[in-house]
Design a protein that fits this description.
- The chain is built from nine helices and 25 strands.
- It has helices at 12-24, 46-51, 116-119, 126-137, 158-172, 196-207, 252-255, 301-320, 365-382; strands at 4-8, 30-35, 39-41, 60-62, 72-75, 78-82, 87-90, 93-96, 99-102, 107-108, 121-122, 142-148, 179-184, 212-214, 219-223, 228-231, 236-238, 241-245, 248-249, 266-267, 280-282, 287-288, 331-339, 342-349, 357-364.
- The two termini are 29 Å apart.
- The structure holds flavin-adenine dinucleotide (FAD).
């Protein structure tokens, strides 16, 4: 009998899960991906759009491409999820499946900070990175303030990379002497989940560029008219250009569903990604997985990708009765772009006990080349 796998979300996790399932399942079984957006963009490359190294077209592709591989794509808003029935309502249409994967990511909520969207620009979205690139290329002198709107956001490295790429761009344009750059973060240090050594290494990378680093500074509000960012401790900082990483929350349709846990995200088995509902899996940014230190696994594409492979293999195994059980083991890696064609590279086991065992490699041209190759490979293999 034909079975259907319904994948809610066509981002990194959804695309990888769909590809692996399509390859492993006989054609009579249906693989269906739902997303509201007709186009996918690789967020890791948004920073290169910001810095001018890529055009928006180079880092995005139509989701329709999946159809060529025999994956069905439905465009529309996921309005309701009933995990007990393995069912979702998409643009008013009820879709039931034998296997349900929730890969709806995290929703940006810049509006959580008063004045932020009017007063600043973000590299987090493709549109934001495109607008920021225009603002940066016209910037001649003054104070650039980069901030994280909350301690929890996507990709722990991204705001630090953004600061270093902006600094490199400013220097390349010969206006370094006229521009001051400060980075304010709500968290106590860079990439704290990866441990104190990694955190200190990334902090040293940032400070070696002459960027002022101000940790544990939670922005309270922004006044777009006076161009002042005000922090919780009362300090007011004048800026000429404000750049931000927005905070996130689980998408409303997930928060309104019985899938939501006390963390405000979907809680899953850390190895199989199965939820409390049999046959229903959640992966990527929409989940919360607690590590041995009590901190959550970072919201990063590398984990969404690895988890999607595990979930897809196990669903294919359940359908076909062949293959071995797959388990997500907590390994992950990330490139840290530092500008001037160089990047650092951190990799290790986030599930290690008593704390994640991550090693950071010093910035070099090799790691930057690795990230470029990874980007090309990702689009070729998975889109
Ligand atoms: C600037 C930036 C740089 C980054 N750099 C890196 C990096 O270098 N390395 C790394 O590992 N990670 C990086 N990340 C993080 C990475 O992009 C995310 O962790 C990853 O995309 C999560 O994958 P996902 O499949 O869980 O969710 P997503 O990729 O966000 O996909 C979720 C999908 O669900 C859709 N959706 C949501 N709600 C609905 C709904 N109600 N109806 C229909 N569709 C819906 C969305 O349109 C989206 O396509 C970066 C993120 C940013 C913002």
């Amino acid at each position: 009998m034909s079975q259907r796998v319904l994948i809610l979300g066509g981002g990194i996790g959804g695309m990888v899960a769909a590809n692996v399932l399509r390859r492993r399942l006989p054609p009579k079984h249906r693989v269906v991906v739902v997303d509201r957006e007709p186009s996918f963009s690789l967020a890791a490359s948004h920073l290169w759009v910001m810095s001018g190294a890529r055009s928006p077209e180079q880092v995005s592709c139509p989701l329709d491409r999946l159809q060529r591989k025999g994956i069905e794509v439905i465009y529309g808003e996921v309005e309701h999820i009933d995990p007990a029935q393995r069912e979702a309502v998409v643009a008013g249409r009820r879709i039931t499946a034998e296997h349900l994967i929730i890969a709806l990511g995290g929703q940006f909520i810049p509006e959580a900070v008063e004045g932020l969207t009017d007063g600043g620009l973000t590299f987090a979205t493709l549109d934001g990175a495109t607008r920021l690139r225009a603002a940066l290329s016209g910037f001649k002198e003054g104070h650039i303030v980069i901030l994280t709107a909350a301690p929890l956001y996507k990709c722990p490295a991204a705001p630090y990379e953004a600061a270093m790429l902006i600094e490199a761009q400013v220097r390349r344009r010969g206006i370094g002497g006229q521009v001051r750059i400060d980075l304010y973060t709500a968290e106590p240090g860079p990439m704290g989940v990866a441990g104190p050594d990694v955190s200190a290494a990334v902090r040293a990378m940032v400070e070696s560029k002459g960027i002022g680093y101000h940790p544990e500074r939670q922005v309270a509000k922004v006044n777009p008219k006076t161009q002042v960012a005000e922090f919780n401790d009362g300090e007011k900082v004048q800026y000429d250009l404000l750049v931000y990483m927005p905070s996130i929350q689980a998408p409303p349709v997930v928060r309104e569903s019985p899938l939501i846990g006390e963390s405000g995200w979907v809680e899953v088995d850390r190895h199989t990604l199965e939820t409390q509902f049999p046959g229903v899996y959640a992966l990527g940014d929409v989940t919360s997985i607690s590590l041995s230190t009590g901190k959550p696994l970072p919201k990063a594409g590398v984990f969404a990708h690895a988890q999607a492979e595990v979930v897809a293999r196990n669903i294919a195994r359940a359908v076909t009765g062949t293959g071995r059980e797959a388990r997500f083991d907590g390994h992950g890696a990330c490139f840290v772009e530092v500008g001037e064609g160089k990047a650092g590279y951190g990799a290790g086991n986030f599930y290690a006990d008593p704390r994640p065992a991550i090693r950071m490699h010093r910035p070099s041209r090799w790691w930057h080349a690795g990230k470029v190759l990874f980007e090309k490979y990702w689009f070729w293999r998975w889109s």
